[in-house]
Amino acid sequence: MDHILLLIMGAAALSVGLSVLLKRLSMPPVIAHMMTGLLIGELYGLRQDQTSLLQSVSEFGIVFLMFTIGLEFSPRQLRAMARQALALGGTQMALTSGVIAAILVFGLDIGGWEAAVIGAGAALSSTAIVLRELNDNGDLNKPYGRQTIGVLLFQDLSMIPLLLMVGLAARQEQAVALVAAETVLAALAALAVIYLTGKFVLGRALDAVSDLRRSEIFLAMVLLIAVSAAWLTHALGFSYSLGAFLAGLMLAETRYKHQIEAEMQPFRDLLLATFFIVVGMQVNIGFAWEHLGLIVVASIALMALKTVMTTLAAWRHGDHHDALKTGLALCQGGGFSFALFEAARAAGLLSEELFQWVISCLALTMLLTPRILEWVHQDGGGLLSRSRGADLGPDPARLISSDHNHVVLCGVDRAETVHLEKGHIIVCGYGAVGREAMRLLGELGHPAVAIDHQRSAVEEGAMRGDAVMFGNAANPNVLERAWARDAAAVLITLGDRRGKRLIGEAVSRLCQDPVIVVTAADGDEQQLLSGLPIKHLVRHNEEAARLLIDHALTCEVRQPYTPRICRECDDPGVKQSDCAAPLTPLSASERVDG
Q: What pLDDT, on the 0 to 100 scale, is given for residue 297?
């Protein structure tokens, strides 16, 4: 236990320290995590067999990543992009793996099975790094981002036949037709179970759990869904991430979409960091240092080759600038490559030396990827920008709506997606005050969305025709799904004092200069909210009293006991009941003169 705690503390300290240091150099945390793995493996002398359990745990970083990516899809969108993903992904895999295998066989005199395994593994790209960077850069919905996602999905699916290929190479006596038939039947069984469960079970189960209003139970339910789907596909011979993606797909059009994304993000990010640390652990620093020059040359050659092959495959599906961006985005090795090479080594297809060669090269390409993706995001300083006036026509493989703000809400019969105009107002809490605020905003024609964590409130909003999103407004990830950064103001109308404070803190962390308007019942609650960047605080009692007095001091109210005159009119011909000007009490001299 002490050894494990020392390992965890050492990894955490190195990862945090390197992340802070590299952040000042404008380098992403992924590089810090991989460097942490390199150092931890060397400092603690960890061998491959000692990190097998950690590898299994870290694989769930990709599982949860694919689960959240599945939430960004819908079955309709997946069908729309399937043909392009199959064509582009299949062409990329065939070209890249074929050319690499040919170079290894005819140029380096490597055996056929070894070359085939290395070529297939090298053709894969890093789903974890690429999707993370595209999401952070906001490029997921760009044309090259959609092409990249399609290829990555195909590569994930291709892990099934690739692992079968390794198994067949180790057991060449088994019939290929029998293995293929078993694979098809297993795939159909997995799809049927996940689809039927999602259609008839998940919705009711989540309804029951959300009614408990306990965040830890809701989180446990989400984890159960993701892990169960991953386990099912793995038990049938497929990858964990495939089941997680299908589970996310089933939940993509439910009212719980945004809250699920918010709940899963901490687990996903933590396990992804663990995954990159494990990738770094697998590299033998001594071997890499001894052959550093050749590893650098081989890595650069691999990235150049993959860029060319992927660009050629993507050229026929869009603009040549987007094709080149797609090629650059997919030029690295992938996390699944390590799993494939590990299986090949266990089957006796790869020697230890050859294994170290390929993983050292792939690890270096992954280290360089964040910088390359950042350069691609900036259009390569103008080199990769599309020519002006280029018309690509409609995109049948549209993954994510290009509208600025899209939010999944609870509809009357089913969840629906709405698009908000920029500068909308977010109402946190759909109670009595929140409902009235949404009604007034609707009368003014101002775009608005409410957030509430009670299913009954969300359903009531759907019946009223209001845009009400299911989620915990105190979670910054939920606020981000509601596009809080682009909101004109955030109204906090909850009755829970602690909840108001948590929401205010979440908004202030997410937005640079937020406009927060919040209600407070008394001075104690106002003190609790002190320190937050609140633009206006409405105190219930004071505002109610002020409104009462404003109505009382108008000419529409008659005061038989205290004589008053209308100073605005000062016209004896005007009746008090016809004047809306405020009344002013008579002075003592005026009462005497009267």
A: 92
> pLDDT category, 197, cuts 50, 70, 90?
confident
DSSP 582: B
Specify whether the CB–CB gap between 177 and 422 falls below 8 A.
no
Residues forming beta bridges with residue 450, ordered by sequence position: 427, 468
In the predicted model, what is the mean pLDDT of residues 248-268? 82
Q: Where are the beta strands (DSSP E) in 202-261?
A: none
Question: Which residues are paired to 516 by β-bridges?
Answer: 490, 534
DSSP H or E segment with residue 367: helix 352-377
Residue 371's identity, in one-letter code, is R
Q: Per residue in 408-459, pLDDT tens?
A: 787 666 677 788 888 899 999 998 889 999 999 999 889 999 999 888 888 8
Instruction: DSSP letter for 554, please.
Output: B
Dist CA 367 CA 529 (whole Å): 44
Pairing of strands 516-520, 534-539: parallel
Tens of pLDDT, residue by residue over 544-577, are 788 888 777 765 544 444 444 444 454 444 444 4
For the cut 60, the answer to whether the pLDDT of residue 172 exceeds it is: no
AA letter at 526 = Q
Would you give the DSSP letter of residue 314?
A: H
> Taking a C-beta distance cutoff of 8 angstroms, is the pair 360, 297 a contact?
no
Pair of tokens at residue 105: 């066989």
Residue 364 has pLDDT above 90, yes or no: no
User: What 3-state DSSP class applies to 149?
Assistant: helix
Q: What is the 3-state secondary structure (H, E, C) of 476-537?
A: HHHHHHCCHHHCCEEEECCCCHHHHHHHHHHHHHHCCCCCEEEEECCHHHHHHCCCCCEEEE
Give the residue from 470, 466, 472, 474 showing the smallest Cα distance to 447: 466
Position 391 pLDDT exceeds 60: no
CA nearest neighbour of 7 among 40, 31, 42 = 40
Q: Rounded distance, CA 591 to CA 576, Å?
A: 18
The half-sphere exposure of 270 on its side-chain side, counting CA atoms within 13 A, is: 8
- Residues 262-265: contacts with CB within 8 Å, 24+ apart? 262/471, 262/472, 262/475, 262/477, 262/478, 262/481, 263/215, 263/218, 263/219, 263/222, 263/475, 264/64, 264/67, 264/68, 264/222, 264/226, 265/68, 265/477
